[in-house]
Amino acid sequence: MGKMSRVLRCNNCGEILQSDNINLPGYIPTLILKDTNRILYCENCYQKRKVNRGELSSSIDDNSFKILSDAKNNNSLIVLIVDIFAFNGVIKKTIIDLIKDVPLIIVANKKDLLPLKSSDEQIIKFIKSRFKEYEIDPLDVLIISTNKGYNFETIKEKIKIHAKNKNVYIIGGKGSGKTAIINRLLKTYKNTTNRPIQTIKYKDIDAKVLTMPIDDNTNAYELDGFSLDDSIYGALERNIINKYVLLKKCVKVRKFHLKENDTLLLGGIAMIGLKQGKNSEIKAYFNEKIEIKKMPLSKEKIFFKTNLINKNLLPVSDLLQDFSNFDLFQYEMENDNLDHEIAIKGLGFIIFKGLGQTIYIMVPKGVAIKEGIPRLC
Ligand SMILES: Nc1nc2c(ncn2[C@@H]2O[C@H](COP(=O)(O)OP(=O)(O)OP(=O)(O)O)[C@@H](O)[C@H]2O)c(=O)[nH]1
Ligand SMILES: [Mg+2]
C-alpha cells in the first residue's frame, strides 16, 4: 500500500501547516501536528478563535447502535449492504466495533454500475482486503445487482446457510440499496409463521424497524441506513449530488496522461495531481457529468477561483468557495508497477500503476479517501 500523509492545512484559514518556524504562517507545535485524530488549526487561528481541538467525530445513529449492540450480544447474522461504486473501504470506528467478531455477510450491490467486464473475483478481493485492514473477516462476500437481478438468488441461499436459528440484521449506508433488496426478496418470500411482516418497536429501544419473520423463533430486521457524513454526499448540495454525482448507469472510464506537476480538476469539487514522478496514465471512474480538466499545478489555484464565477468546469458548489474548505492528502506510491486505486468516498475512484510517484488529492473537508488494491483489473 502507498504511504499516505495529509498535507495539513489549518482547518480555519487554510494555510499549509508547519512546525519549523513560529514566526511564519501556518505554525503549529510538532506534537499536535503529529496527532492524526485531531482537526488541526494553526497557532494563530487557535489563539484567535480558541477553536475546539476535539477528535474527529464518527457517529452512527443512536438507535441503530443500540440495536446492533443487541444483535452482537445475541450472536446474530449481520448482512452488510455496500454500494460497490460509492464504497471506498473507509468504515467508521463505531460501525467496525459492531460488525467485528460477528457472523457477517457482505453484499456488494449495484454491480451494474461498474464496467461490464469487471470481474467478481477482483471485487471480492478488493472488498476483503479493505475489511481485512479492520481485522474483519466476513463469512461471505456476494456481488449482486438488485436492478438487474444479477446473482440475486445467492443472497437467500447464503442467509439460509449462515442464519441457522439466528436473527438477521440488514444494515448499510443510506442509499446502498437495502429497501430495494428487501422489496425484491419479498417477492418470493413465504411467511411460514403467524406473525405478519410489520414495522414495530424494537424490544425496549425507541426505534421502529421493519421486521420479517424467518421462522417461529427468528426475524430479519432492516435498520435505518448509516449516515454518510464522511462521503461526498455529506459535503455537497443535494441537487449537485443528484445531478452530477449519483450514477444512473454504468460508469465510463476516462483516461488521462499526467506528467510531473499536472493536475486534474474535477469541476470545483476535487483535484488529483501528479506532484512528482514518472509520467502516469490515470484511469478515472466518475460520473460523466463531472467535467475533468488537466492543467499545470501552478495554474490550478487561479483557475479554481475564476471557475467559481465563470463556471466553466462543472459542478461548482456554494459550499466550496475557498481552499480552506478542502483537505489535501499526499500519497507516496510504491514502485511496484502494479495497479493501485485511490477512491473518494461516494464520488468515484482512479486506477493507475504504482511508479513511485507522489500523488496529491484534494477533497472537500471530511470526505474520506483510501488507497489500496483496485476493485477493477
Ligand atoms: N444501479 C443500481 N441502483 C440501485 C441498485 N439497487 C438499488 N439502487 C438504487 O439506489 C438507490 C437507493 O436504494 P434504496 O433501496 O432506497 O437504498 P436504502 O439502502 O434503502 O437507503 P436508505 O433507506 O436511505 O437507507 C435507489 O435509487 C435505488 O433505485 C442496483 O442494483 N443498481
Ligand atoms: Mg431504505
Describe the structure.
With 377 residues, the protein is α+β, with helices and mostly antiparallel strands. Among the domains are: 1-56, no CATH class; 62-222, 3-Layer(aba) Sandwich (Rossmann fold). Helices cover 23% and strands 27% of the residues. It contains nine helices and 18 strands. The protein has helices at 30-33, 43-49, 62-73, 93-99, 120-132, 152-163, 178-187, 238-245, 297-310; strands spanning 3-7, 77-83, 104-109, 140-143, 168-172, 198-201, 208-213, 219-222, 253-258, 262-266, 270-276, 280-286, 292-296, 326-332, 339-344, 348-353, 358-364, 369-372. It has a seven-stranded mixed β-sheet with strand order 4-3-2-5-8-7-6, sandwiched between helices. It has a six-stranded antiparallel β-sheet with strand order 1-14-17-11-10-13, with helices on one face. Strand 2, helix 4 and strand 3 (104-109) form a beta-alpha-beta unit. Helix 3 (62-73) runs parallel beside helix 4. The two termini are 16 Å apart. 37% of the residues are buried. Residues 50-58 have low confidence and may be disordered.
